[in-house]
Amino acid sequence: DVAAGDLATTLGVSPTTVIQVQSIDDLSIPGSLGDNVEAAIDRALVERPDLLRQVAEIRTASARVKEAHAAFYPSLELSFVPGAQRQIGVEQLFPRTHRDGFTGGLAFSLKWNLLDGGARKNRLANERANLRAAEAQLSVTRDQIANETWAAYSNAKTAFQQRQAARALLEAASQSYASALEAYKYGVRSFLDVTA
Hints:
Layout: H1 2-11, H2 37-47, H3 49-70, E1 75-89, E2 97-111, H4 119-185, H5 191-195
Antiparallel strand pairs: 1-2
């Protein structure tokens, strides 16, 4: 009852809630593992959100390296400001006049920072180091996922082999018991031989 109450509390429901649990006899156990270990590792690598997050971090770090590298080149800015102009003139002796025109401005600006005390170089080196660190972390995570998958696959495979061995042992024990019981019935063996 305490375990059921703890489970209900963990699930966030009232401890008096009855939780239906499937009987272990209703569960079917497969005869073997479907995939080989390489397919299981590949599937694990594709389905892990932490690995996908680290791939996104590498893309971000790579973009930052490109941005830091672009700081070594000049930048060209172009600005254009269009404007309409309308003038109307009125004088007493002359007819009314007007003039429409299109005015605007176009400006080019070239900026090239030649001397910055090594700030661009240091920023580029820092961003490259961040990229290498993100790639190394991704490699560590991939290795960890592969190791976890390998261990789980190996444990499952061992469990299947232990189950097969247990079935064979049970069959051998049943045959041995049946033989000892039959020998007891014929008076060849004692009761201690049957129960041992």
